[in-house]
Design goal:
The chain is built from 18 helices and 14 strands. The protein is an alpha/beta fold. The chain binds uridine-5'-diphosphate-xylopyranose (UDX).
Length: 443
């Protein structure tokens, strides 16, 4: 049965959730306190880049099933299903999560909540958050309600596919009634043979953070292997292909390179490590911490390669390809490319960062490098080009595109995306993360 729902918080998760729910036939009101964002969304414009989302949003608005408002107190009173999609960013310490937006949402919900409402948390939260929010809201209202957790597993760039055709739906619940409502809301998705895992709330909160920390460990594992490969005459890319054929290991998230960034993996890894430390699991804490250290170390390896190729970096023009933390997103949170650019600036280099699409948020002001959307301009007169991100358009660049424009023909491929042999035939010197000099010479 179509439901009347709200989606509270309209970031990557919330806009996708709102448009997807409307596409499933539900009547959705999206709410966010950022009035500029609401104005854009009302015009059918997505305030960030996510492939396919603008079409889905416009179809939803056109169908009359998706509306927006800028305060929770304006939500229609008959809504009895609320999805919490507000951000839970890292606090300045990096390891602590700021759940204040969730608590603010509870304060506001208390003023409009219907009798027997169901609240579904989707944000990534520390374990125990659902219990705390439930206690908070209970103290503010005499209405009966259920609060369950349904962690999101959306990856930026593939958010719609991950929503409509997820690998699993996790429901953390202490209420059979609320779980049945949520299952009915997702009926069309579940009918596609998607496994639904019913858990208690605390386990469901942990599933998300433990999954993301595991993905981070997997990437750091292959980046650790890359350090060994670089020193032993081996090729990490070939190793990963061979390892990945073991279905117990799997090839996904085994791409070595500049490491993981984004709004989730670094934050969840740090948060989980802190949690492990607090609970006295010191060996596990160290394991998680090591993954962070390996992730940062890869940046140092690029600097080492850069010095090998250029000697002193001061005054040299260096082009970093890729400001987004990965392809198909304009998100620059914890971007490995930007972090590298900053380090290169620290070494006195004149750095230009290129991205194939504009960045919708303001670039941090302390970043003393130039930003360009024009590839030709970005490499003009450069002494070193660094492939820092895996955009498909970068894979299509041929040596002819760059050879006449640069000052010196040096490349560091930090994402294993170029055809090294072809570039070498044009006289380029190449360093590839995870590949020894011998492997590079053979490659
Ligand atoms: C992640 C989780 O994948 C998703 O399930 C969760 O809901 C949100 O967090 P996302 O942050 O969009 O998604 O990015 P993801 O695709 O996981 O990539 C994270 C980082 O790891 C990127 O910087 C990417 O370049 C890097 N990465 C990924 C590698 O370095 N190697 C790999 O093999 C895979």
């Amino acid at each position: 049965m179509p439901k009347k729902t709200s989606v509270i918080g309209l970031g990557y998760l919330g806009v996708t959730q709102a448009a997807v729910l409307a596409s499933l036939g539900h009547e959705v009101t999206g709410v966010d306190t950022d009035k500029t964002k609401i104005d854009l969304l009302r015009q059918g414009k997505v305030p960030f880049y996510e492939p396919g989302l603008e079409d889905l949003l416009n179809n939803a608005i056109g169908s009359g099933r998706l509306r927006f408002c800028d305060t929770i107190s304006e939500l229609p009173k008959e809504i009895d299903l609320h999805f919490l999609c507000v951000g839970t960013p890292a606090k300045d310490s990096g390891a602590e999560v700021d759940t204040s937006y969730l608590r603010e949402a509870m304060n506001s919900l208390a003023t409009v909540i219907a009798e027997n409402a169901t609240i579904v948390g989707r944000s990534t939260v520390p374990v125990g958050t659902a219990d705390e929010l439930e206690a908070q809201l209970s103290a503010l209202t005499s209405k009966k309600f259920d609060l369950i957790w349904n962690p999101e597993f959306l990856s930026e760039g593939t958010a719609i596919r991950n929503s409509l055709d997820p690998e699993r739906i996790v429901i953390g619940s202490n209420s059979a009634r609320a779980e049945a409502i949520l299952r009915d809301t997702y009926r069309e998705i579940i009918a596609r043979d998607v496994p639904v895992i019913s858990l208690d709330r605390r386990t469901s909160e942990l599933v998300k953070i433990a999954s993301n920390a595991f993905l981070a460990l997997k990437i750091s594992y292959i980046n650790g292997v890359a350090e060994i490969a670089e020193k032993t005459g081996a090729s990490t890319a070939q190793l990963a292909d061979a390892m990945g054929l073991d279905s117990r290991i799997g090839r996904k998230f085994l791409n070595n390179g500049l490491g993981f960034g984004g709004g989730c993996l670094p934050k969840d890894l740090a948060g989980f490590a802190k949690f492990a430390e607090e609970k006295g699991s010191s060996a596990f804490y160290q394991m998680l911490q090591s993954a962070s250290i390996i992730n940062e170390d890869r940046q140092n390896k690029v600097i080492e390669f850069a010095k090998e190729l250029l000697g002193d970096l001061a005054g040299r023009k260096i082009t970093v390809l890729g400001a987004s933390f990965k392809k198909n997103t304009d998100d620059v949170r914890n971007s490995p490319g930007l972090s590298l650019a900053k380090t290169l600036v620290g070494h006195g280099a004149a750095v230009v960062v290129h991205n194939p699409i504009p960045i919708s948020v303001k670039m941090p002001t302390e970043m003393a490098f130039n930003f360009s959307l024009d590839l030709d301009e970005a490499v003009l007169g450069s002494s070193l080009v660094i492939f820092a991100s895996d955009w498909d358009s970068y894979k299509k660049i041929s040596p002819e595109d760059f050879t006449q424009r640069v000052q010196e023909k040096n490349i560091i491929d930090a994402r294993s995306i170029i055809q090294a042999k072809e570039w070498k035939s044009f006289g380029w010197k190449i360093r590839i993360l995870g590949e020894s000099q011998e492997a590079q010479a053979n490659g």
